[in-house]
Amino acid sequence: MKTFRDQIHATRRRAGLTLLEIVLALAVFSIAALALVGTINQIADAGTESQQLLEIEQSLESLIDEYGKMPQIREMDEQIKPGADGVAYRVLIEQVKDLQNQDGRFLQNTFRVLVVARWDDGSGPFELQAETYRYAGAFLPVN
Hints:
It comes from Prosthecobacter debontii. This is Prepilin-type N-terminal cleavage/methylation domain-containing protein. This protein is of the alpha+beta class. The protein has one domain. Helix content is 45%, strand content 25%. The chain contains 1 helix and 4 strands. It has one helix at residues 4-68, and strands at residues 76-80, 88-96, 110-120, 125-135. It has a 4-stranded antiparallel β-sheet, with helices on one face. A hairpin with a 4-residue loop joins strand 3 (110-120) and strand 4. The N and C termini lie far apart (116 Å). The relative contact order is 0.12.
């Protein structure tokens, strides 16, 4: 038969094990919570980067439309300084002299409109570009 002293001793051992179990459970939970927070931060960074890239792509498309639809298109090289978003643009319009159609005939008065976006997001410089071709008489006013 167990004495009172043995019962107290057994209770203390169980209490010590319970405390150890709680500490281990908190450690496992802390590691899992830390991993979850890290994953959420990575998702937020990816979302921010994706949003910035979408805005730059829309700006490229807008500049292609603006410069490609000028009534009097001409060769030019224009630099657009970085704005609040830190993105600098370069618009390059050059006449294409060796462009042929399917029949092998050279296409006259065709221009290449190239827009290049450059920025640095802290991890290094990035560059994104878009281009289109345009016939010089495409947007002339009709009399």
